[in-house]
Amino acid sequence: MGPLHERMMIMSNRFSNVLVGCVALSWASGAVAQCLLERIIPDQIQETAIYGTSIDIDGDRMVVGAPLDYGNDWAAGALYVYQHDGRNWQLEARLIAGDGTVGDMLGVCVDMEGDRIVAGAWFEDVGLSNSGAAYVYRRDPGTGEWALEQKIVPEISMIEATFGRTVAIEGDLVAVGAPLHSGQGNASGAVYTFRLSEEKRVWTEEQLIVANNLESLDRFGLALDIDQQRLAIGASWSLDERGQAYIFRFDEGLWQQSAQLTASDGEPGDQFGFELELDGSTLAIGAYHDDGGFYQQGSVYMFTDKNGTWEQQERIDIPDPHDEAQFGTSLDMSGDSMVVGARYAGPEYSSFGPGAAYLFKRGRGGWEFSSLLGSKTAEEEAEFGWSVAIDGGHVAIGAPFQDSRSPDTGGLYVLSDSDLDGVPDQCDLDPDPDINDDGVIDGEDLGAILGSWGICDGCPADVNQDGIVDGIDLGIVLGAWTI
Predict the structure, then answer these.
(1) Greatest CA span in the chain, whole angstroms?
(2) What is the pTM (predicted TM-score) of this model?
(3) What's the CATH fold of domain 39-422?
């Protein structure tokens, strides 16, 4: 077997073990509506690019990772940068690594803030096999051109560390995860921080971060987020894959561990900490293998910072549970809204469906399900919801294994609220409660609702056409009752 095939096998195995999408977005509307998602595929995308593996949005700009795209070489990876012109997303730039080589996988994870993008290339060989690298790109405000600002690597690289598997940026701070770093044991994991010197425009390594109790195979750094100079870091393989998450604060020039979190009802194999999102005093943590009532249905745990102490507030389960939905594969928050991906959710409660994303709103009683986002064009195992993103009135959902133009080309689906009225532009908020179209709203319409209850994409009883027949459809029918 040649080296190329060997690397493909390594990538395939690690994809199933250590890869999850990054980042997310949402808006304030409490209405549930028919939302027609727009699919965006760049003309120059290559087959098997797995475009949509990672996404981030900041204002009216969006970056999408395609880690198996032909960058400077086969599977070197590429980034696609878009700008929203008020109506549509327009491709602004395609970014690659000028020194990229076979299998580097630039774009396995991305993060964007202002005029900067940071992207990981976790399989890049920086003197050592799969040691990894991260790339920071900057947009010139004057010319509007994107260019490489700096390639970031640790001062001391480690073989098979997969540095760049996760990335995050906030101001002058970049954090990079290396979940297979073996400093505290085989694949115990680590996170590196880098600071920007504005005078010299140079990113310099600041600290190598590890948790207090790391053991072999914990994969600390598999999930990562920054908010207000705090780091949230996941180690979903720890404690027999029950999983843990950690909070670090920057104090007196050092990152210091301030919290170690577990799920109150965690069980071996749940993978708590596989994905997380930190937003102010709220922390959402995905446990995508949590069984709940069904095998690997998945769940999300919500924590709140109360005077420096993180407390679990609630557990959110998938609204339409079934085996192997893997709810919590990806997630993101924006204020009082949250979107959660379930990469194998299916319309008929079957394993390995096309995937879905779910919008939630925070109310006085906690987080409540708002609507289901799915794709009628996604095939089984397209993994729609592998990545999600939300910001500035825009939602994006990745389906990296969608056969858009060829097997595993990938896909990106977007919703926008250009006028910021709280209603997505693609949504039709005029549902018709007359299900059988006989001119009256009566018991026959009610019977259609009850007979189709649950996931039922395209059913006449799905009055608001959100892919699920539920209490919202029932309320619309009862509210329009004529007999």
Answers:
(1) 76
(2) 0.83
(3) Methylamine Dehydrogenase; Chain H (2.130.10)
